[in-house]
Design a protein that fits this description.
alpha/beta; 248 residues; three-stranded antiparallel sheet; 35% helix; 17% strand; seven-stranded parallel sheet
Amino acid sequence: MDVVVVDDAAAVGEHVAGLVSGMVERDPGLVLGVATGATMLPAYRALARGSGDLSRVHIVALDEYVGVPAAHPASFAAYVEREIVVPLGIPQHQVVVPQGSGEELERRIEEVGGVALQLLGIGRNGHLAFNEPGSPLDARSRVVALSETTRQDNAGSFGDERVPTHAMTQGLGTILEAGRLVLLATGEAKAEAVVAALTGPVTPDCPASVVQWHPRVTVVLDVAAASALQRRRSVEGAERERVHHPQL
C-alpha cells in the first residue's frame, strides 16, 4: 500500500488526476470506477483542466440512491453527468450508473471488462461506497439501508427534501475485484476513519479496512485527513525507541 500525504484538497485532486491520466495514456479505453461527493471534485476538475483525451474511457459509478430519479440534481447519475461525463467529453453510452438489481450491475461491470482503476472515498463511519458498518466483507452489489450518519452527511444535497433511506451499491467483494484502488480522503473529520481503515483490523465494523486486502492500493490524503495516522506513527516510533532505550 502506498500512502501519499499532500498539503490540501486541491493537491489531492492534482495527484489523483495525474494517476488517472497516466493510466489513460497506457490504456485509452480504461474502465474507470468513480465515486461521488465533495472529496472527489478536485480530482475530476483537475482531470478536466488537463490536455489528455479521455473520450474512450468507460465510467462505472459505485452507487446510486434508490427512489431518486436520474434527473434529480442530487442523484449520482446527475453528479456523474455534471462533474465527469460532460467535462471530460465521455460519451453517454460508455457510462454505467447502478440501477435495477445488484445482479444487473454486476453483469454490466462484467460486460465492460471489469474496473481497471477504482476511485474511492471513505465515510466518517468507515463506509466504503454505501457499504455501511456491518457489511459482509465479501458482499456483492445489492440494495442497502443507509445509516443515520451517512444520511446526515448527505443531507445538504437534498435541501428540504427527505434524504433517501436506501441505495444500490457495489459490494466490498465487487470493489476488491478492480485492478487498482485509489482511496482519497480530505479533512480532519475523516482522520479517525482513515487510521482505522489503514492500520486497524480488517473488520465489517470498518468496511474501508478491506483495502488492506488489495495488492495495489494508493491512498492520497491531505494533512488534516492524515493527522491521526501520523500521530499513531509517532506513538509507535516512540514505543520502539523505549524498547531500544529502556532507561527512557
